[in-house]
Amino acid sequence: ELTFKDAFEGKFLVGTALNVEQVAGNEPKAIEIAKKHFNSAVAENCMKMENIHPEEDIFFWDEADAFVEFAEKNNMHIVGHTLVWHSQAAPWIFVDENGEDVSREVLIERMKHHIQTIVGRYKGRVDGWDVVNEAIEGDGSWRESKWYQIIGPEYIELAFQFAQEADPEAELYYNDYGVSGKAKCDGIYDLVSNLLEKGVKVDGIGLQGHLNFDIPLISEMGASIEKLSSLGVNLMVTELDMTIVPWPSDEVTAEVSLNYELSKEYDPYSEGLPDSVYQEVMDRYTGFFEMFLRHHEKITRVTFWGVHDGNSWRNDWPIEGRTDFPLLFDRNYQMKEGVENILEMAKNW
Ligand code: G3I
C-alpha cells in the first residue's frame, strides 16, 4: 500500500500536526497513521507561549519534550510552532506588575529570553521553527498586535535574530494564513524581502493551507507560490485542511462561496457527507496536490493540520457541535476513498 511519504519521496516532505494526547500514546491508531505516512511532525499546541511559558519564571516542558522525543524516535523532521504570535501569547509578557504595558526594552528582553530558552533547549533537535506567525493583515499591512504596538516592526527581525543566536543551524520560518490573497502575499513578500536585504536569516515561508470548500482558487495559491519563490527562500504548505462547513452567516457564505448551493446540501450537524460534496472535496484536494507537484521544486514540505477528521480543530468551530471532514483520514482511521489517486499521481510524477 502506497503511503504519503513514499509517494512524495524526492518531491517534498509530508507532515502532520500532532496533539498532546497522541504523543502521550492515548490514540495508538492515530500514531500508527502518523508513523506510517508522514516524515515530518509539528506540535499543534504544546509549544505555544501560553502552554510552554505560562508565567515569567515558569516553563512547562513535559509536553514539548515528549513531542520532540516522539518525532526523533520516529526519524521525523521536526518543526517547532510557534515562537512569536499575537494569539495564545501568555498575557504576562506584555504587562508590568500594575497591569500597564511594559516598555519596548522590557518586551524585547522578555521576547529574547522566551525565544532563546526554547530554541536553546531543542538546539540540534528541532529542525525548523515557525519564528513569527501571522504578522500581516489581509490588506498587506502590519497586524497591530501587542508585539507591534510595543516594539514596532523591528520585533520581527529581532525574533529571527534571537532564534538564530540560540541555534544557528535550525531553519527559521515566517508562517501565515490567507497567503493566496494578492494584497497579503505582496505584504509578506515585502516583509521577507526587507528582512533578507538587511541580512536577517529567514530560511522559509509557511503558507498555511486552511482551505475552504471553495476559496482560495488553486490558481491563486499557485500564483502566491510563484511570487514568493522569487525571494529564493524555501516554501512550505503548512496547516493543510479543508473545511466543508459553511460559515454560520448565510450572507457571508453566499458572498464568498462559489459552491454555496452545494454547501447547503451538507448538514453540518450530521454524521456524514453527501456523495456530491465528498466528491467535490476530493477533486479539490487532488487539484491542490497537482498544483503542489507542479511547483515541487519550490516546496520543501506539505504538512496537514491534524491526523484525521476526528481531532481537527475545525470541528466545533466557530460553532459548537458541528462536525467537519477536513482531512484525508476519516474518524475510523481509514484513508479516504480517492486519496490513493493522489498518491498514485505523486508516485508517477
Ligand atoms: O487543552 C485545553 C483543555 O484542557 C481545556 O479544557 C479546553 C477548554 O477550552 O481547552 C483546551 O485547549 C484548547 C486547545 O486548542 C487544545 O484543544 C484551547 O482552548 C484552544 O484555543 C486550542 O485551539 C488551537 C488554536 O490553534 C489556538 O491555539 C487549536 O487546537 C489549533 O489547531 C489552532 O491552530 C492554529 C495554528 O496554531 C496557527 N494557525 C491557525 C490554526 C487554526 O486556528
Helix proportion: 25-40%
Number of domains: 1
Secondary structure tally, helices: 14
Class by alpha and beta content: alpha/beta
Q: Cα distance, first to last residue?
A: 18 Å
Q: What percent of residues are in strands?
A: 15-25%
As a whole number of angstroms, the C-alpha radius of gyration is 20 Å
Uncertain segments are 251-260
Mean pLDDT: 92
Outline the biggest β-sheet: 8 strands, parallel, barrel
CATH topology title = TIM Barrel
Ligand names: ligand G3I
> How many E-type strands?
8
Helix and strand element order: HEHHEHHEHEHHEHEHEHHHEH
* Overall spatial form: globular
User: What is the fourth-level CATH superfamily?
Assistant: Glycosidases
* Major β-sheet strand ordering: 1-2-3-4-5-6-7-8
Tell me the CATH architecture: Alpha-Beta Barrel
CATH class: Alpha Beta
